[in-house]
Amino acid sequence: MKFELSNTTLSLRPINQKDLPYLLEIYATTREKELERVPHWTDTMKKEFIAGQFNAQHEYYQKNYTGADFWVIESQNKIIGRLYLHENFQGKGMRIIDISILPKYRNRGLGQGIFRDLMGRAAELERPLSIHVETFNPARNLYTRLGFKTVSETNGVYHLMEWKHTI
Description:
The chain is an alpha+beta fold. It is 36% helix and 31% strand.
């Protein structure tokens, strides 16, 4: 799928093998707070754990989201994040499989802009837009402000949130 972002300082391109170290770095930033809770682990142990988790997640996504788009988010030819999207997930709607932006690029409105673009695309296709988010993830507040509603919960930790275009 071809998807253009309205923010012209950002671009999307399909991931490739050369991107895996950058994708690992992006993934690692999403687990930093969690790893602070295991102070007895060495840096090596943490890196090995993150690499294993990233590889398992990457393999799972590639295998289980056939037909999805896996993009890096770039700004001025630098990778600053990732966006994984299935435009016709299970024939029911658009699913944001994952979106992550490096910490130094967060809180600048970039993620909100990407979400608004995705919401616009979902409205064009007359499909709901959904994403899973952990209860403690601060991005959940953004999703709520944008009009996403919790539609289900798994183990009290993962929330499936959905946005629907209303006329």
